[in-house]
Design brief:
Blueprint (H helix, E strand, L loop, with lengths): L1 H11 L4 H7 L4 H7 L2 H40 L5 H26 L5 E15 L2 E10 L2 E9 L7 E9 L6 H5 L2 E10 L3 E2 L4 H19 L2 H12 L7 H9 L10 H12 L7 H19 L3 H18 L6 H15 L7 H25 L7 H32 L1 E2 L3 H25 L5 H19 L6 E2 L6 H16 L2 H27 L2 E7 L3 E8 L2 E8 L5 H11 L3 E6 L5 H13 L5 E2 L2 H6 L5 E2 L5 E4 L2 E6 L10 E4 L13 E3 L12 E2 L9 E2 L1
Parallel strand pairs: 3-5, 11-12, 12-13, 13-14, 16-17, 17-18, 18-19
Antiparallel strand pairs: 1-2, 1-4, 2-3, 4-5, 4-6, 7-8, 9-10, 9-20, 10-11, 15-16
Helix pairs in contact: 2-3, 4-5, 4-13, 7-8, 7-11, 7-16, 8-17, 9-17, 9-20, 9-21, 10-11, 10-12, 10-16, 11-12, 12-13, 13-14, 14-15, 14-18, 15-16, 15-18, 16-17, 18-19, 20-21
Length: about 700
């Protein structure tokens, strides 16, 4: 009986990495790499933290109990897989401690009015004499980050006593990822005072000096793009430029990452002779925290700083740093220091992008180069760098595709090309920006300007090709993208025989995913809604085209409309109806017409005056019929009847039942609405099928 049990246990035991290596599924040297401690633990700890946050208390208890049992069993059997079980337990404990010790106590203040003292850490937006800011305050003895609206101008590194009306609404995932659990409006401000000098303010002053030198010498589109690509200051980008960056797959260049660190460090190290090896390495070590202070404490910057430090430390200790191991150390350390980091889409895009370009890409390229080893040396010298560059860039797009599909609802595969084209231009601009900021010689602004002009041309060229964007706005869209990423990862670690087989599956998925997307787009017949309390819009999607109805002035809607069209695969607007456009709304329509082709515009004299190159039909009704559905706009004093969909604009003090079948009103999340009203701010998935 015992022999039979042992035989069954041997036959059905879970295979380890060594078994996969023996079977050829994983090469022996790759199996050793995957056996490194941080490589074993990082994915499990991250998965456990996500499970705790989204799964709740019962799920957390079950996962912890299973991991504990697995840890005891694996330790008893002396299996190295105990590290993975321990990582799951650690991830559960860290996130549960964060939830119970910080998240829930802080969220208890939601919806209350408090008087406290704040210190301003960042100004995110300015609207004349009003602004949106990030500040720190003490709530219940805990240091808390707040996103606040202020009717008066406050400055960074200032402290003030204030009264705040905190929102009751749940924070967005984006805010959670930044550690912001509460938002509100400052209703009363006392006297503000400067906090005094600190290392952070000192580095910000240095950064401000460099940024000021750039702003004074590089103007127009080049200046906007240089601010975004070199400093991550993308708020100065025009709506058109921001959309072109997204469509071209180059938006990641506006988020400070390892590329900024590498170019910045290379410029600094160039002044130290090559023979002073230790001095150069010590400067590299010091640059990691200094670069963090210079660029700010975003998660992508923190990840890049940790990896850069590990890489430099490895060289200082005469050990070659491995990209995968360094990445997994960063993936382990950063969420342990700041648990909300695990929720940040940008953080995951950064991690998976490095995984694709630095881990998977070179391995795939090496295997692809095996197919040209019989070619003449001259051909191999030409083809090898081309294959390597394209493979690394494409792998970065594939590895980040699941996050793009899940969060951004679309994938821009052309980013594999634009990333290659923009990389040398960014390196040139970064190098001369450092010289310009340090020496203040205006001549250094010339190469920056020309590099950004060429970058702008490339971004516009591909940014206008909206047809190249793959719409992933359907349920489960991230699953085939994740399967493709997993298969490509296996291709990097397996032998050549299995590589060929898996490669065929990957190529099939590369064809199937766009086909599924095209079918979903062609069959889409629905109405989406975007807007604010002052203006809103109905986007009537019909396959790859759309019609728009804008209620109210329309100011500030261009990027939101273009974003919905991009996610849904719509490449043109056949007609736009906007009876009440104001000056800002007409500018928004003009910006939108640069992003997406518009065949017909039905609006007023204001739009006709600002769109002289486009014929504007002035005979437009407040109620229009589109595809058999009547749509109208309404304010507090004017509520038309006999329409299917009614878009409310402006602030409405008292809301009663609407005569329309569907009434749409964008308002604060906590405001109660009558039964036939819908607030897309609360129900983000709300749409009308037809």
């Amino acid at each position: 009986m015992r022999r039979r049990w042992r035989r069954l246990r041997a036959e059905f035991r879970f295979p380890g990495l060594s078994d996969f290596a023996l079977s050829g599924l994983i090469e022996r040297d790759k199996a050793a790499l995957l056996s490194l401690p941080f490589v074993r633990t990082a994915p499990f700890a991250a998965a456990a933290m996500l499970t705790v946050f989204f799964g709740g208390g019962l799920t957390s208890a079950i996962v912890f109990a299973l991991a504990s049992a697995a840890l005891i069993y694996l330790l008893a059997k002396k299996k190295t897989a105990w590290l993975s079980a321990a990582a799951v337990m650690l991830g559960v404990l860290v996130m549960m401690r964060y939830m119970a010790g910080f998240y829930l106590p802080v969220r208890a203040f939601a919806g209350k009015t408090i008087s406290t003292e704040i210190s301003v850490t960042e100004i995110t937006k300015r609207y004349g004499q009003s602004e949106e800011l990030i500040a720190r305050a003490k709530l219940g003895g805990k240091s808390v980050k707040l996103r606040l609206l202020s009717g008066e101008v406050l400055l960074e590194d200032h402290r003030a006593a204030v009264t705040i009306e905190l929102d009751a609404a749940q924070p967005t995932v984006k805010d959670l990822a930044q550690g912001i659990l509460l938002s509100g409006e400052i209703t009363e401000i006392g006297e503000a005072e400067f906090l005094g000098f600190s290392f952070a303010s000192g580095f910000r002053a240095i950064r401000g000096s460099f940024y000021g030198a750039l702003a004074r010498n590089v103007f127009g589109e080049s200046g906007e793009l240089a601010s975004a690509m070199l400093f991550g200051e993308d708020e100065w980008l025009s709506p058109q430029s921001a959309e072109y960056l997204r469509v071209s797959g180059a938006a990641h260049y506006t988020a400070v990452s390892g590329a900024h660190f590498a170019v910045f460090a290379a410029a600094l190290l160039s002044i130290i002779p090559q023979k002073r090896r230790k001095a150069r390495l010590l400067v590299s070590l010091l640059f990691a925290p200094a670069g963090l202070l210079f660029y700010g404490f975003s998660l992508s910057v923190l990840r890049a700083s940790v990896m850069f430090f590990i890489y430099s430390l490895g060289l200082l200790l005469h050990k070659k740093a491995n990209t995968l191991n360094s990445l997994c150390i960063a993936l382990t350390v950063i969420p342990l220091i700041s648990p909300p980091a695990i929720l940040d889409a940008g953080f995951w895009m950064s991690v998976l992008g490095v995984f694709g370009v630095g881990v998977i890409g070179p391995e795939i390229a090496a295997k692809l180069c095996e197919f040209i080893k019989e070619k003449p040396d001259t051909v191999k010298r030409v083809l090898t760098p081309i294959i390597t560059t394209l493979a690394c860039s494409l792998c970065a797009v594939i590895c980040t595709a699941p996050i793009s599909a899940f969060v951004f609802k679309c994938v821009a595969p052309v980013g594999a090309i634009t990333s290659i084209l923009l990389a040398p231009l960014m390196a040139v601009a970064m190098t001369f920006m450092l010289l310009l900021g340090a020496i203040h010689v205006r001549l250094f602004a010339v190469p920056i300007d020309w590099a950004m002009r060429l970058a702008s041309f490339i971004i516009k060229l591909f940014g206008k090709m909206r047809v190249l964007v793959i719409s992933m706005d359907f349920r489960g869209a991230w699953i085939p993208a994740a399967v493709l990423a997993i298969i490509v990862t296996l291709c990097a670690f397996c032998d050549m025989k299995i590589f060929v087989r898996l490669g065929k599956i990957a190529l099939a998925l590369l064809i199937i995913i766009p086909v599924i997307s095209a079918i979903k787009v062609a069959n889409r017949r629905e109405i989406r809604f975007i807007g604010s309390t002052t203006s809103s819009a109905a986007i009537i999607l019909d396959g790859s085209s759309a019609r728009l109805y804008i209620s109210g002035g329309g100011d500030g809607l261009s990027q939101s409309i273009s974003g919905v069209l991009r996610e849904c695969g719509a490449t043109k607007i056949t007609a736009l109806y906007a009876p009440d456009l104001d000056y800002g709304g007409a500018l928004a329509v003009r910006a939108l017409s640069d992003m997406v082709p518009i065949s017909e515009i039905h609006s007023n004299e204001i739009a006709a005056g600002l769109l002289p190159e486009r014929p504007v039909d002035l005979e437009t009704s407040r109620v229009v019929e589109i595809n058999g559905i009547t749509i109208g706009s309404a304010s507090a004093a004017d509520v038309p009847s006999g329409v299917d969909i009614l878009l409310y604009s402006g602030r409405v003090d008292k809301i009663t039942e609407s005569p329309a079948r569907v009434a749409v009103y964008f308002t604060r999340e906590e405001k109660e609405l009558p039964g036939n009203f819908h607030n897309p701010r609360v129900d983000e998935e709300f749409c009308v099928k037809y």
